[in-house]
Amino acid sequence: MSGPALKKQDSHYAIHESAYGEAEELTDLLGQLLEDNQLNKAHMLVPVIVEHWQTRTLQHASEEEEGLYQEMLSEDPSLVEKIAGLKRDHDLMRELVNQVNLQFMNLEQAGTNPKLEDLRQILQRCKTLLWLNRTHSRSEETLLA
Q: Which of 89, 100, 104 is nearest to 53 (CA)?
């Protein structure tokens, strides 16, 4: 069973906006550090970004899948395809976060200074995560309306 905040459009929207805003700030900071050629600081920010996505957005996604989506399907089985699409979005976000984390771990294991190109790839994945998350959230909020 999902909590009441997930079922109410305004509170669900607020949850999405809060997590998105934080992710956007972290991504902007990463971009600024790269622009300023502060590669070591940018590199140190990556695990913070990964942790944010894991504990805020992806944890929320798991709660939706385990509660809200199941409840919505039991109330209206015709939503099966829309819910499957939303779950697919979650899977894509998980995969992107895993890719960022793996790339960070590979840089750590290499034991060399981070390269601008590697960090730019991470930044691009973070921007893709933001876009996917925004698109997903709007679709989900429309479904809740």
A: 100
